[in-house]
């Protein structure tokens, strides 16, 4: 569950409160005028949205922001190269604590942002307003590795007009998705009935929701649990949905391809990130014919994948103080209020309850459905995407390979999960 440990959360909030008292009332946004910082970004919706305001940051602070933007996988490769070299050429980077947080923290790659957030932030920064669960998820061994930027998780987008035309009801249980997809395929053979991630390193983000709703878990008694009955059922269901009802070349699909396919009206059900909502709705074609809900519950209930991107400062930055000015500007209540109106789900309750945001939601029913689904993610979510170990990123490769082996027909479910368990247990043993 995405819920904070009470003592930990209380300690953070107490620290934040004392820090707020200690903040200088004459906080100077021009304190680092003339400095240059480099931001390594990936081209996800948050980065695209915030960088539209880059000129405002530079005008406010006098700091020059140099931006290097890549596709997500390329961004990760670039970051690993820079960090392994202990280079100072990157000051700020986007990070997923649920993915690489434990690994990067163990390597000492993150600057601790807690002293900055509690002692060197503008008086209106409102650090204590962040979701305590997201703050905790970004904290490892007392080090705040990043400041929350959003809250997100995969949701089921579906075409209400096609469902109505085909006389199909939305699935209310995980086991019914295949039945619904089959009916849609027969009714609309020229459309993709169901789409989700198939790219190996990206797949666990969506597959994990299937696993947890099926009642499965990645580990049990210190060992890989992918070959549990629940794990095998989840692999079989996910792989068969993509094989029988997914788009051609689905093994190459991540968020970009899913969004394009659905936005262009070529898929009927799309299980993809809530963070893609603004991109899906771009152009307005899907505003009137789309509904959004969490993945239906399975035998294990409803346990949606819930994560959030964070903004981090490199431990090797030569300009960490100037970098912090960008971090706090980009994650401020003011900026998050602006981004919320562009469909970036805010990680502060105060922003979510802002009258302007509420008015924006009220303009379109689909926006209200999106927000309701996000609230379910916040209340019931788990951030377990892949194995809860330092080598989490590598564990995701083995999960993706197992599902793809079944999807491509090169292995049975038993063979695929057994091969994955062997590799994953060896990985766990190295911890």
UniProtKB/TrEMBL annotation:
Keywords: Cell membrane, Lipoprotein, Membrane, Palmitate, Periplasm, Signal
Family: Belongs to the bacterial solute-binding protein 1 family.
Localization annotation: Periplasm
InterPro entries xrefs: Bact_solute-bd_prot1, SBP
GO cellular component, one term: periplasmic space
Highest taxon listed in the record's lineage: Bacteria
Entry protein name: Sugar ABC transporter substrate-binding protein
Signal sequence, renumbered to the chain: 1-22
Organism lineage string: Bacteria, Pseudomonadati, Pseudomonadota, Alphaproteobacteria, Hyphomicrobiales
